[in-house]
Amino acid sequence: MDAIIKIKLSELNAGFVEHLKALFQGKEDVELTLTFDDRQNAYYDSLKQSKHDLELGNNLTTFTMEELEAYSLRKRA
Predict the structure, then answer these.
(1) Closest to 4 measured CA to CA, from 39, 38, 37, 42
(2) CA 65/CA 47 separation, integer angstroms
(3) How many whole angstroms separate alpha carbon 4 and alpha carbon 13?
């Protein structure tokens, strides 16, 4: 049996552990994997890198107003 249970750290307490024990009662081998979801930190790291690139003028795409309007018109069609 496989199950994914997502909980907040604040919900991880002795009562939760007791519920897990009851769920798997009578089983000899149970494997639990705990994973920390770091997507939010990765998002902020990406934003920081983008800001840094902008400040240095790296990885920028520039265009004229005419090019923007032409691009916009193509996307609407």
Answers:
(1) 37
(2) 26
(3) 17
CA separation for the pair 24, 2 (Å, rounded): 12
* Four-CA torsion 44, 46, 52, 54, nearest 10 degrees: -120
> Do you know the residue count of the chain?
77
Give pLDDT tens digits along the chain (77 positions).
777 888 888 888 999 889 988 988 988 888 888 887 777 788 888 999 999 999 999 988 889 999 999 999 988 87
Which residue range(s) make up the domain with 51?
A: 39-76
In angstroms, rounded to a whole number, what is the distance separating the alpha carbons of residues 1 and 67? Answer: 56
Please report where in the chains the tokens 């705990």 appear, as a residue: 34
**Residue 49 resides in a domain:** yes
Place of tokens 């007791």: 18
